[in-house]
Amino acid sequence: MSAWVKTGDFARRAIAMRPAYLAISGRIRRELGELAQVMERTERIWQQGFSSRENSEDDYYVDAVALNLHGFYAGIERLLEINHCRRDRSN
What we know:
The protein is mainly alpha-helical. It has two helices and no strands.
């Protein structure tokens, strides 16, 4: 088989894969946006908790920060799953 045919086959496969990569990159962008929101919210809650140290509700701020950090971890986990699923399909 000539190099031209092999190159043509590769180009066709690359074009066919493009929508899949676009979908994956879109999912990753959404996840990163959500992670940024979670971190901003976590930082705001943390700052509120420290600004009101005399407040008896400090535990609520710590709990809220913990829940948001868990959400951040879950978002990182989803990013890794996206990458893992893509690799499984390519093999």
